[in-house]
Amino acid sequence: MTFAEQYADAIALRRVKLRKRGFALAVETAPPTGQAALWYADAVLCVPRSGQAVARQIARLCGDESEVTVPWRSLADAVGVRDRAGNLRRYTERGVKALIDAGWLGVETVGSKRGAKTTFRLLSGDCSSGCLGWIDDREWFTEAA
């Protein structure tokens, strides 16, 4: 029995789902583009893993703009990573806090509960060598006295 014969049913089922959906991959897997891609390239170096995942999705949502308004729940679904307790939103909130603490993100929430509108604004954070963990070249290339 060949591979195609063995998995013909599963392949046909996936082909139907792909035809129905119209695209092979989720939008969340697409890399950031535009101005936000440059922001993401710098911000990802200065934050922990949770901040990196959140930065990727916020940059993807922003595109050529410098801000995006999206509900917390939608952002958490886009990030798609759970913390140890299995919570999507807490992991996302921790990533946003890391970005805010590093100076890469501004958050403004208007309203409360279900009617709340949260705006995430891209900021230029700290790109110093201390943040990036780079080695200061003066330590290595000193002149002999």
Mean pLDDT: 81
Strand order in the sheet with the most strands = 1-3-2
Stretches where pLDDT is under 50 for at least 5 consecutive residues are none
Total helix count?
8
Helix share, percent: 40-55%
What class, by secondary structure content?
mainly alpha
DSSP, total strands: 3
Instruction: Give the CA-CA distance, first to last residue.
Output: 77 Å
Radius of gyration: 21 Å
Descriptive report:
The chain is mostly helical. It is built from 8 helices and 3 strands; from the N terminus they run H-H-H-H-E-H-H-E-E-H-H. The chain has a 3-stranded antiparallel sheet. Helix 5 crosses helix 6 (88-101). The longest helix has 14 residues, at 8-21. The protein is elongated and about 60 Å long.
Q: What does the secondary structure layout of this molecule look like, with pairings?
A:
Layout: H1 3-6, H2 8-21, H3 35-43, H4 49-62, E1 67-69, H5 72-79, H6 88-101, E2 105-110, E3 117-122, H7 129-132, H8 137-140
Antiparallel strand pairs: 1-3, 2-3
Helix pairs in contact: 3-4, 4-5, 4-6, 5-6
What are the main properties of this structure?
single chain, 145 residues, mainly alpha, three-stranded antiparallel β-sheet, 3 strands, 49% helix, elongated
Provide a brief overview of the structure.
The chain has 145 residues and is mainly α. 49% of the residues lie in helices and 10% in strands.
